[in-house]
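We close this part of the discussion by returning to an individual protein. The sequence in question and its structure tokens are set out directly beneath this paragraph:
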Amino acid sequence: MGLPGTRQRDAAASPAGSSLPASSANADPSADPSLVRMFDEGGRERFTSSLSSPTGVSFPAYLARLEQLLAVRCAGMNDGGPSALLSGEREIINGNLQLCVACPDNLGVGVLLGKTMLAMKKLRPDLAGGIKEKITLLQQTRPLPEPVQAAVKAIFDEVFAL
């Protein structure tokens, strides 16, 4: 029996004991097919250090940026509009950029910036144009090792696509 105002899920749409739809129950939310494919082709051993979380003074900033990505994604699900749940959108993007500068060889930080930009584009498409020059400069001055740079660039190409 469900709560008032909620719909019951179709039992056939989700696996037994799961409240997730069948399509998302088996999905790995962290797996980006282009990244997985590039790692399989390029070899995982070369990029092990690039896949770890930032350490030292960058670790708290990394956690804050992960939390902000969650906030941006949650704001995108809000029926009341993005402004009801989210503030400081420019600071979120600038903080991600600063983290990329502090951790130039970290793939996770680059992907975090890209995924934050993708989520933000849905809420505030006007921000993408103003930040494009900074991201382009970041990619030119502090590129990630290939082939992961190409994967991160593909995320940004999606962000800046019209």
Notes: The first helix runs from residue 22 to 25. Residues 1-29 have pLDDT under 50 and may be disordered. Residues 33-160 form one domain.
